[in-house]
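lol so apparently i was supposed to do this last week
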Amino acid sequence: MTQGVELTAEQLAGVLERAECLHDADAIEAALNRLGEQITAVMADTRPLVLGVMTGAIVPMGRLLNRLDFPLEIDYIHATRYHKTTTGRELVWLARPQTPLRDRHVLIVDDILDEGHTFRGLIDECLEHGAASVHTAVLADKPNAGRVPGLAADFVGLTVPERYVFGAGMDYKGYLRNVDAIYAADPADED
Ligand SMILES: O=P(O)(O)OC[C@H]1O[C@H](OP(=O)(O)OP(=O)(O)O)[C@H](O)[C@@H]1O
Ligand code: HPA
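anyway here it is w/ PRP bound
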């Protein structure tokens, strides 16, 4: 079960008003175009299985798929470690992919790469189940000192600073994923 966070519309409007816009809608659009081109160049001939990491992947994955004009299949993984809060904990599996992974070229898509524990767990799971290769794509990369050693995404849309960010699929305590820009929350709103 995820831990619910009660926030009113008024409180959320305040969070948005105090937040700093890092990447606007045009920048996101351009980043998705670049991602589409880079992924196409590497994976167009691999008939990949594209795995979205719920819930954050919903927005970037939907928008990215329109830019991948080659044969592919889609499935999803649900693993979470932030539980609608702003601090990561242990990775909890809610759903594993139903499509057999053996000998498949897998592309894992997520909204953000932060410390990297989520990707580490997902990549290892795919390889344990026999994937032929595993690539990763994120809309936002947040380089930080707590990053799992050696972990980097293969395809990165935008870079964000070491602050709590939301929008374009990324949540603020479960909300604001549907905002069409990437914002950094005011430090006072981070707890
Ligand atoms: O690199 P990490 O530090 O592991 O963090 C990245 C993960 O955190 C977020 O997921 P979250 O657990 O918040 O679930 P969500 O997708 O439902 O927001 C995000 O969507 C990534 O999957
Ligand atoms: O900064 C973040 N914002 C939203 N979700 C996240 N998951 C990891 N880091 C973040």
